[in-house]
Specification:
globular; alpha/beta
Amino acid sequence: MKIGVIGCGVGGQAAALFLNRAGHQVEIFERFPEAKPVGAGLLLQPPEQAALNELGVFRALAPKGARVDRLFGRTTSDRTVLDLAYANYRTDYCGLGIHRAHLFEALHAAVRDAAIPLRLDSAIVDIANVERPTLIAQSGERHGPFDLVVVAEGAHSLLRKKLDPQARDPVYRWGALWVTCPDAEGRFARTLWQKFKGADKMLGVLPIGEVPGGDGVPHVAMFWSLELDQFDAWQRTGLAAWKADVKALWPDVAPLLDHVTDAGQATLASYCDVVMRSWRKGRCLFIGDAA
């Protein structure tokens, strides 16, 4: 089959690789002039690890990440609200904390090795004839028709409402500030930690192993809950006030905060609650966060 994949992120590249290896003619379309990762760290669960292993990229990827055996969350009043150990299900299971750039580059290298065509700076704004889909780019250029189109352009997909006008995708009020810090002594190793104060303050620390271009020192990704409309106020208030809030919530993270010297080190992430009536329309399929 002739297949078009919209989006050159983790889901799009993985789908393109699987489809290419199944013998299909695959082409990837990416809206940005350069394909690159967005975000800091993420936690790869065992099914995701198995999929990456099937693609042949997990063996080289795993040493760059950090093993996570447990997810643990506690309130400031020492009430445990989350305590999940992988070994309680299977002793050979664990999570893998990894910097998004490592995961992206591993898949991107595999896409290049497979010689899968990649069209950059090609924003797809509409799809004509979902039963024999043709992609319409912002430039007016048309691509196709295809036997199948896979939409993997993320939670903020522009095509979702085009194909499913009744889809719901409200953006959560709350987002998260992400910052990456070295943890040379491994104080936060092997566990995804979270600390809560009520329902409006949360701090998390995820071990992610090496960072791109680093010196092999283990790092963590720290994430702080923040209402999206408060981001400008957070920037105006300054780092000192924020660090004081964080330390008051969880004093143990003080050594991590010493490495945060510029507000530009923090990335604001927003999240959507996506609900579609169906992930498929004709020969168009939504996957990943786009679905």
